[in-house]
Amino acid sequence: MPRTRSSSAVLDASVSRPRPQPFPSRSRSALKRRAVVAVLLVLSLVLISVSFRQPTSGALHGVEAAGATVLRPFEIGAERIARPFRDVYGYFRGLAHAKRENARLRKQIDELRVRAIEGQTAQQQNVQLRKQLRYVDTPQFPADYTAVNTRIIARAPSEFEQQVEIAAGSDQGITVDTPIVTQDGLVGRVTDVSGNLAHVQLITDSESAVQARDLQTGAIGLIRHGQGQAMILDRVTKDQNVSPGDTIVTAGTRSNKYPTLYTDGIQIRQVLALGQTDTAYYNQIQVQPFVDFGRLDSMTALIAHKGVRKR
Description:
Layout lengths: L1 H13 L11 H28 L5 H75 L11 E11 L7 E4 L12 E4 L2 E9 L4 E5 L6 E6 L5 E6 L5 E4 L12 E4 L16 E9 L8 E6 L8 E7 L7
Antiparallel strand pairs: 1-2, 1-12, 2-5, 3-4, 3-12, 4-5, 6-7, 6-9, 7-8, 8-11, 9-10, 10-11
């Protein structure tokens, strides 16, 4: 027993234990990281400045080109790896947008369906009331008209004479004051007619004037030629509301000064600009035609059905 104790004491005395190392301070580690970031930032600014100052053939640009060439395969690989994820993201994003758009269009369709039903109901009531009142009216466009489609065979010799000749006349039922239209709107009226020929005065003629109304507000005025090539809606008093973008249609009445008859509801033009002055009694309204008069080729004559009374 004493030997055992003696050997144990000798061993304990000969073996040296390592001293514990202190853990690095957190503040010291944060300081080192900040120093590294600052050095990298300064180095980046230096490299950018040198790169901008060097010519295109400089050594630094060569190193950049070589680095870009080396990293190009990795860039392509990363692009191919990321593309499916981008495609999936784009698909779901487009799907969400399509769902929102579909919901918006469905709501719009429902609103238009309600308006269409209201319009049909009002039209049926209008027809019934007209029958009960025995209301006498001008021909209704387009129900009370037959369309005679024809083409232009001659144009005016100068731009000051806004008239054309069409290849249809009295043999097809066309008479003086027959309205002439295209699918875009009103063109003019017939001023002279023979068997298979008719002269049409365009509404761009300086002698033409068409009673018209604002489809949105009901304001009444005259469509006529203004200064230069402009067209205006004249004779609209300031107490009548007209706004840019409003649609102007024929009023379907006969003016005492301009005895030209057009059926009601033929679209003519759109209000382009509106102006007012303190001294003028009428609004200054510039309009933009729906019809492109510079490209007229074919047009349609509206022949009123027999038995429909004209006012």
